[in-house]
Amino acid sequence: MTELREQVVDVMRHADCLYDKAAVEGACDRMAERINRDLAAADVLLICVMNGGLVTAGMLLPRLDFPLRVDYMHASRYRERTSGDQLHWKVEPSQPLAGKDLLIVDDILDEGYTLDAIMRFCRQQSAASVHAAVLVQKEHDRGVRPAVEYIGLRVPDRYVFGCGMDYKGYWRNAPGIYAVAE
Fold this sequence. Notes:
Number of helices: 4
CATH architecture: 3-Layer(aba) Sandwich
Strand content: 25-35%
Low-confidence stretches: none
Radius of gyration: 16 Å
C-alpha cells in the first residue's frame, strides 16, 4: 500500500460522520422537490460540474420528474489537492448555452470562486437563466458566495469529503459526508 493510500485510509478511520447516507438521500429529496416545483415548465439543460458534482447529479437526476437534457463541464481550483488557487478549465459544455435554462449541479459551495466563475461563464454565453444546486454549503463568510437556490445540507467550516467531495483524490465514493478529524 502506498503512503498516500495509507494516509487516506487513516483519514476515514478517524473522520467524523456529519451526515449519513439516509440524511444525504433526504437532502436530495428536498432539493429535487424544489427543483421540480421551480423548473418543471422550463427547458432545462442540467450541467454537472466534474468531478465533484457527479454524485450529486447522479442522485438528483432520477428524482427530477420533467424532461431535461444533461451535459457537463470540468473546471477546478483544487486538482486533487486540499487547497485551491486559480481556476483551471478542462472541458466546457458541448451544447450551446445561449437561450437555455441552466441548472448547474456541484458538490460543495465553499468560498464560491469556482461556482461563481462557472455561473459568470454561463451568463456570458447568453443563457436564458442560470440556477445552481449544491449538495453542501460550508458555513463561513469567506469568498464570493454566488446565489445558489438549491442547497442540500450545511456543514461546519472543516475539510469535508464523501458524496462526490474528495480527500486528496480519494473518498468521493463515501456514502455519507465526513469531516477530517480535528
